[in-house]
Specification:
Number of strands: 0
Helix content: over 70%
Shape: elongated
Number of domains: 1
Length: about 70
């Protein structure tokens, strides 16, 4: 049962990233530009945003989302 739950979580995560990509990216941009946020939070948001922009992230997401569905 635990293994099935882990795969179910992965399916949900890849699907959420695929469907919410633009909103996630927009939110990370807002956080990274918000001077009210702590520097470490802004830096982490910027790092995540850069990872999202990489081609391999998109390819992996489409691949895994298709495979797990």
């Amino acid at each position: 049962m635990g293994s099935l739950t882990r795969w179910s979580c992965r399916v949900n995560a890849t699907k959420a990233l695929k469907l919410g990509y633009h909103q996630i990216k927009k939110t990370l941009e807002q956080i990274s530009n918000d001077v009210e946020e702590k520097p470490c939070v802004r830096c982490e948001a910027e790092g995540l945003m850069e990872r999202l922009k990489q081609l391999e992230t998109g390819v992996y997401n489409v691949f895994w989302n298709g495979l797990l569905q």
